[in-house]
Each structure stands twice: as structure tokens, then as C-alpha cells.
Amino acid sequence: MGPSPTVDTVPGRPVPTVDLYDLDRALDEGVRGLMFSLNCDQVHLERRRAALEDFVRCGGRVLVNGHVHLPFLPGLAPWRAIDHHGPEDLRVTPVTAHHIWEGVDFHELLFRTGVPGTPVGDELARVGVAGFYGRGYHAHVPEGGTVLNGIGPHLLPLDIVFPLGEGAVLAHAGNDLLGFSDPERSTRSLGPRLLDWLEGSAS
Predict the structure, then answer these.
(1) 1 in a domain, yes or no?
(2) Cα–Cα nearest to 95, from 86, 106, 80, 81
(3) In the chain, how many domains are there?
(4) Which domain holds residue 119?
(5) Each residue of 102-159: pLDDT tens digit?
(6) Distance, C-alpha 56 to centroid of its chain
(7) Does the N terminus or the C terminus of the chain have fewer Cβ atoms within 10 A?
(8) Which CATH number characterizes residue 71's domain?
(9) Which residues contact residue 28 at a Cβ distance below 8 angstroms, ignoring those fewer than 6 apart?
(10) C-beta of residue 11 within 8 angstroms of C-beta of residue 35
């Protein structure tokens, strides 16, 4: 097989893509971090649980996006939907400060819009749709884990991070985090900081 194709998800920082069904090759090639999309095959990942766990325990880092139905790593928990009736039920609130979200306007995470321009404040709330960042939460947080961002009035765990051996797992119970890195908004730093974290150059 040839080299893995890359995607330019963050300007100037091409990221190699990995065929999920060729995961063992990527692990053998010494990758430092893995980012799993919300649509990844969790049945396959659960079958590769031992190899993934060994990767993290030996110092690797993993970002898990989406709704976990089959916990394919120790510490992951099933996704639970929120009974939501309006934006306040889906509001994203920082719980524990983390450099990945430093300087981010959480209003811009709550509301997304496809209209031209970059509406802010009340205008963003008027034309935007809430819930793309998350509509649910992790059923539990593992021992040693930290809730970074909560959702809804009860601050249910939406973004969590936890150690696993010498490595770490960052789990986001919503759409792919990298998709929220908008160069025209305060979220522009999310992409570069996520890559820094996955590479191990940031804690």
C-alpha cells in the first residue's frame, strides 16, 4: 500500500488519513495521535480494543467524536440523549478550563448558521440552529477523568478527558470537533490546538 492520503483540515497542517480497517498498520508506523470521526465503525474498533488500549497506555492520544454505543476503550461510556425543548437545554458551558477552548465564545459553539457572513450575539441566536455541537452526554466519567465542558442546565458531561496509562483520551459527545474550527470566528483556534494535543505537544 502507498502512503496515507492527507487532508488539509487545518490550513498549513495536512493530516494523514487512516483507513479504519487498516488501523494496525497505522499503529505499527508509530502514529502519536488518532482522531475518530463520529461515523466510524465502532464494531470494528471494539474488535481492535486490545491494540487501541495498548497504543494509548504506551503514550498515545485519542480523540473520540460522536455517540459512543460500543465503548471500545476503557473509560469510554455510552452516549445518552438529552430531552431538549430549546437552546437552553443544549447550552455549552465550560466546567474546567482547558487550553483547547481558551478564548472560544461558547455562543458560537451552541449556534450554527449557513447564512452568509458571521452573525454574532443576538443575531446569531436569531438565525442560528442550536445543537450541532452536542445533543447528549457521556453516561459517566471514569475515575481520574475531568469534565471540560457541560451541556444543559445540569452541566452534563459533553467534553471529557481522562488518562489511560501513559496516554490520554479526549471524548466529545457530538459532531466532529474539528468541524467547528471556523477561521472567521473565535473557534478558529480549535483545530490547531486539537492537533497540538494529539501530537503530545500540549497537555
Answers:
(1) no
(2) 106
(3) 1
(4) 6-199
(5) 999 999 999 887 665 677 777 777 777 878 999 999 999 999 999 999 999 999 999 9
(6) 16
(7) N
(8) 3.40.50
(9) none
(10) no
